[in-house]
Amino acid sequence: MKHRIVVLGAGYAGAFSAGYLARQLHSDDFEITVVNAEPDFVERVRLHQLAAGQDLRSRPLAKVFAGTGIRLRVARVTSVDPEHRTVTVVDGEGIDRLEYDTLLYALGSTAADHGVPGVDEHAFHVATRPNALRLRARLDELGEDGKVLVVGGNLTAIEAATEIAESRPGLRVSLATSGNVGGWLGTKARRHLLRAFDRFGITVHEHTTIERVEEAAAFAADGTAFASDATVWAAGFVVHPIAAASGLEVVPNGQIAVDRQMRSVSHPDVYVAGDSVFVIGDNGFPYPMSCASAGPTSKQAIASIVGDRTGRKIAPTSLTYFGNHISLGRKDGIFQLVDGDARSKPGALRGRTAARVKSAILDIAAWSVSHPTLGKASHKYRLATTREHSPHVVAG
Ligand SMILES: Cc1cc2nc3c(=O)[nH]c(=O)nc-3n(C[C@H](O)[C@H](O)[C@H](O)COP(=O)(O)OP(=O)(O)OC[C@H]3O[C@@H](n4cnc5c(N)ncnc54)[C@H](O)[C@@H]3O)c2cc1C
């Protein structure tokens, strides 16, 4: 019987990892199944564009995996049982149970509501495609002078507010954040950001914590009401509750605790990559949930799976974090590098060049999903006769 590898999620981490594994492992020994809720690879980093009304390139997973031997299962994962090595999925046909020998958990994350009343029922978000499309439909309904309130002061809030303001100039866009918008940016980048907000006519309410959301308004901690026809909740990400509910060891925010090789510390047959993983980066800080982190965590998880299952040496992947690239609509942006202590450097690439660089990076990231071994030789490694972890593991 073949060794069954099941990959949960086909976002940046899952799709890249599955493709890479298929090119490294011998199909006589390994069977790779990918489970994803949607039939397409979704460029999540462009979902604010989709919500604003732009159309994204279609990337069907069947095409992405064509010729790789990967089995694609379009279904929603509802639970994982790591003791019995099974995953429960639901699709149009009903409930099914998949068995695995090795699991790669890469279900990503969604919007964090922080338990704020009304967010679930009344707010919109851009963390998943169905929700971005829901917001888009709502924006389509709004006439001139419709009011949009974006809640959050970090990357997604900034990108959503500027994209909506640029694509739909008739709307009145405002942003409320408990701290300072883009407060972590270097001086020049922040000045550039505030100028862009001015240009787009976005009203900014800083030090304003939204504590309740209703259909037509959001309410701050001091009681101030902000009239809003569409409240866009962009106050951070949280991983899906499936991980914690499955009995895998998680940290308080729900991310799965792993060793340096991306193996679950409680269930070493489960590997984790992307937003779902909690790991400390090379700078000593938790590795942030980002597309930029999905690459290195996937590479490490892949190296570990290949090493553990075929008896090869596991090379360590560096977990460095360089900074953020932020779009401010389609023609403006900021590329903010950070130093070794994760502090923003004083300077930053700004303007149209930064926007072009960001767009190119996103295109390369999407392209690399279907070309995962580019620059590396493809192999067909055989399954080692023992299921024990490789003795050559690099210490964490
Ligand atoms: C609007 C927006 C802009 C962003 N911009 C940037 C940026 O500029 N730079 C950056 O570094 N990061 C950015 N990010 C963050 C980045 O998108 C994520 O960190 C990245 O997508 C994480 O990759 P992942 O593979 O872990 O998860 P995802 O890309 O979210 O993939 C998870 C996959 O799992 C599937 N899935 C989830 N739940 C289930 C389930 N129960 N059953 C089956 N399938 C399921 C999803 O459909 C998806 O295909 C942005 C995010 C958003 C929302």
Tell me the domain tally. 2
Q: Kindly, what is the distance between the CA atoms of the first and last residues, rounded to a whole number of angstroms? A: 33 Å
What's the total number of strands? 22
User: Quick check: average pLDDT?
Assistant: 94
Label the structural class: alpha/beta
Q: Determine the oligomeric state from the structure.
A: single chain
The CATH architecture of the largest domain would be: 3-Layer(bba) Sandwich
| Fourth-tier CATH superfamily name of the largest domain | FAD/NAD(P)-binding domain
Query: What hetero molecules are bound to the protein chains?
Result: flavin-adenine dinucleotide
CATH overall fold name of the largest domain: FAD/NAD(P)-binding domain
Low-confidence stretches: 389-396
Count of separate DSSP helical elements: 10
What share of the residues does DSSP label as strand, in percent? 15-25%
Percentage of residues in helical conformation: 25-40%
Order of the strands making up the biggest sheet = 3-2-1-7-18
Pfam family, one: Pyr_redox_2
Family: Belongs to the NADH dehydrogenase family.
Protein name: Oxidoreductase
GO molecular function: NAD(P)H dehydrogenase (quinone) activity
